[in-house]
Amino acid sequence: MNKMLGNKILNRVPEITLFFWIIKVLATTVGETAADFLNVNLNLGLTATSYVMGGLLVIALLVQFVFIKKYVPASYWIAVVLMSIVGTLITDNLVDNMGVSLETTTIIFGIALAMVFVLWYYSEKTLSVHTIYTAKRELFYWAAILFTFALGTASGDLLAEGLALGYGISAVIFLGVIGLIAAAHFYLKLDAILAFWLAYILTRPLGASIGDLLSQAPADGGLGLGTVGTTAIFLSTILLLVVYLSVTKKDQTPVSELTEEPKSLLGVAED
């Protein structure tokens, strides 16, 4: 580790701050509404939309891996937004085009995510996001992110539509569970890494439920803002926050603080 610090090797992902969670929820909402906009409003269909967005995601990840090799807010969050859209499309393709049930897709992506975590830990002996300073660790990181989005889409749709709870109630449920995880972490000393990944997974269905609540017509249980309006509002907010973080660098890990030790959900080291 000391040699790495001496060579100024930087973390390739952002520090976990309040800004991180805000942009993450906004990005997941955009993933839901943008996928619907491209698929339905522009009549591209699931297959064409999947090819286009999948291609853009590959380009974004190549830029991240090959040319940048460190955390830059703009490139990182572009990749996350695209990952959110692609994760949504993967689940939608399985459910709508292939007839796989939401229950089955939830189980499949849950198992896939667990396998990524097992392989990641077996290889690196940690699942911490505070030390993503090699290409291998970043590869595991993005694989986990993709499956969290796909799993979150499947489980969110299962709760809101499959169980007919509606978007508003579903959003409250997911927000409440995230709150319980945060409370367990801060007050009951729930492991920081476990708490982070549980909360990260649940922000996907939370964002999707918020997106559907805002964009869907009142007759369908939404507020009727539409996919265009909702996507524009959330993308604009993400852009403003990314510009702010690019200038202030509030979410970049100082080299001296790279550590294997788990930190809190907001990036503060535990006592």
Describe this structure in words.
With 271 residues, the chain is mainly α. It has one domain. The protein has helices at residues 2-6, 18-41, 45-68, 73-97, 102-124, 135-162, 167-188, 192-215, 226-248. It is globular. The model is unreliable at 1-9 (pLDDT under 50).
Shape: globular
Radius of gyration: 18 Å
Q: Which class do the helix and strand fractions yield?
A: mainly alpha
Task: Compute the number of helices.
Answer: 9
Assembly form of the protein: single chain
* Strand fraction: under 5%
Q: Which key phrases capture this entry?
A:
271 residues, globular, mainly alpha
Would you spell out the secondary-structure blueprint of this structure?
Layout (H helix, E strand, L loop, with lengths): L1 H5 L11 H24 L3 H24 L4 H25 L4 H23 L10 H28 L4 H22 L3 H24 L10 H23 L23
